[in-house]
């Protein structure tokens, strides 16, 4: 699958994950960064069947089933995998020699304003907030594109949901500015 700008990697495969983490380590220790945002590590919705990943052999072995025949369990598997992978990346970041000098942020897609899309991409912000807290990261939540037509008042609803998940000053909303009236 090649989805938009994303070049997919089978991060559920231990060898692929190790290779990706090694690249991150070299990048993050080779330059003077002030922080790292682990952003949007989730799956695509099943709008295009070919993009309904992960279907790398390593993922399918772990899933132990047919994603088409057992779609609900596959969606649960994807959500568990999103939580697992975000945790793995943040834990790895905390193991870097310069970790004490870095701020960590976890950016995720909201599943409260559009629970259906949240489930389809594997996002559970309550569980991901736990991952962020456990790993010393702040949480930034992006509202899904499906609610962009709701106008800016959607952020009032989202802020209440997100703010309750994290300690004060550790929860943020990723604001999307969209043209709602044809450019007028």
For the CA atoms, what is the radius of gyration?
17 Å
Strand order of the largest sheet: 3-4-5-6
Low-pLDDT parts are none
Order of helices and strands: EEHEHHEHHEHE
Strand content: 5-15%
Basic shape: globular
Overall pLDDT = 90
Class of secondary structure makeup = alpha/beta
- Largest β sheet strand count, sense and barrel closure: 4 strands, parallel
First and last CA, distance: 37 Å
Can you characterise this structure?
The protein is of the alpha/beta class and 184 residues long. It contains six helices and six strands, in the order ββαβααβααβαβ. Helix 6 links the parallel strand 5 and strand 6 (171-174). The termini are far apart. The model has no long low-confidence stretch (mean pLDDT 90).
Key terms:
184 residues, 6 helices, alpha/beta, two-stranded antiparallel sheet
SSE order and pairing:
Layout: E1 2-3, E2 6-7, H1 14-30, E3 35-39, H2 57-63, H3 71-94, E4 103-109, H4 115-121, H5 125-134, E5 137-142, H6 154-163, E6 171-174
Parallel strand pairs: 3-4, 4-5, 5-6
Antiparallel strand pairs: 1-2
Helix pairs in contact: 3-5
TL;DR?
The chain is built from six helices and six strands. With 184 residues, the protein is α/β, with parallel strands linked by helices. Helix 3 packs parallel to helix 5.
